[in-house]
Amino acid sequence: MAGFADGSFTLIYLDPPFNTGRVQERQIESARSGGEAPAAGSVVRRGFHGRDYERVRGALRTYDDRFDDYWGFLEPRLFEAWRLLSPEGTLYLHLDYRESHYAKVMLDAVFGRDHFLNELIWAYDYGAKTRRRWPSKHDTILVYVKNPAAYHFDSEAVDREPYMAPGLVTPEKAARGKLPTDVWWHTIVPTTGREKTGYPTQKPEGILRRIVQASSRPGDRVLDAFAGSGTTGAVASVLGREAVLIDANPSAIDVMRGRMPGAVVIARTDQDAVG
Fold it and tell me: Which of 7, 122, 206, 243 is the S-S candidate for 233 at Cβ 3.0 to 4.6 Å?
């Protein structure tokens, strides 16, 4: 991400690992006004929007983590996303229930609370269902914009969905369908479907299509820095966008090469990029 110029992308979609694994101590960061004294044991740095942010050290919370420092891993990528977004650009951060609330606090610090646009819920229904609590069957997608006064969003370009009660609207409205809300009911990638690649974390094209349609235009540049199976690029290319996909997993690069044989592959020392 550091190799691209400021403001290079109209849309950035991040689908990082969901942070499950061994127990790890957590650090949180909170906004602090310039006149406040730092708490004991903390480190202060200058953040975006002219504010200071205070990183409070210590075991404030333990959580399951597959990284030594999950937030140390994700945070610099969020700062890069801010830098890379064009003035009318939008970031979509795709997580699940384990970390979305922490990510919301972090994005409020990086982008500013007034840059928050939506919390999208992708609801699905597959797999085993526990009887010990309400089964978890949704992901959360946090949406932030670079400029709250001048971001691109085209609701008319988005695919519509059926009314749940079509008899309550006119036949014309029922035939056209309704605009999606912030809750998206969409199946996972079907086991025998045409888009199935076999990549374990593959996201369905329908979810990415809606994101790309709403927050970019034909000819715009789209970035996916955790590209995985390459769904963002596959959708963007069909819709006439220019996509840049990054992944450090050689298996992911192989899947993307097969899915987009016309893509240009750029190998780097610590990552691969597919455009």
Answer: 243
In the chain, where do the E strands start and end? 9-14, 22-32, 42-46, 52-65, 85-95, 116-123, 138-145, 183-185, 221-224, 242-247, 265-267, 272-274
In a domain, 195, yes or no: yes
In whole angstroms, give the CA distance from residue 191 to residue 11.
29
What are the tokens at 265? 């592959």
Q: Please state the domain count of the chain.
A: 1
As a whole number of angstroms, the distance between CA 275 and CA 236 comes to 11
Q: Parallel, antiparallel, or unpaired: how do β-strands 183-185 and 52-65 relate? A: unpaired
Per-residue model confidence as pLDDT tens digits over 93-121:
999 887 888 889 889 988 999 999 999 99
Asked if residue 230 belongs to a domain, the reply is: yes
Q: Is residue 46 part of a domain?
A: no
pTM above 0.90, yes or no: no
- Tokens representing residue 39 in the block: 């708490």
pLDDT at residue 71, as a whole number: 74
- Indicate the burial class of 9 (C-beta count within 10 angstroms; 0-12, 13-18, 19 or more): buried
Residue 109, domain extent: 9-18+68-274
Instruction: Please tell me whether residue 115 adopts helix, strand or coil conformation.
Output: helix
User: How much of the chain is helix, strand and coil, in % rounded to 5?
Assistant: 25, 30, 45
Q: Are 26 and 62 contacting, i.e. CB atoms less than 8 angstroms apart?
A: yes
How does residue 49 score in pLDDT terms, banded at 50, 70 and 90?
low
Going by C-beta distance under 8 Å and a sequence separation of 6 or more, which residues neighbour residue 191?
A: none
Q: How far apart are CA 151 and CA 157, in angstroms?
A: 15
| 110 secondary structure, DSSP code | H
126 is a domain residue: yes
CATH assignment at residue 179:
3.40.50.150
Torsional class of 49: left (φ above 0), alpha (ψ -120 to 50), beta (otherwise): left
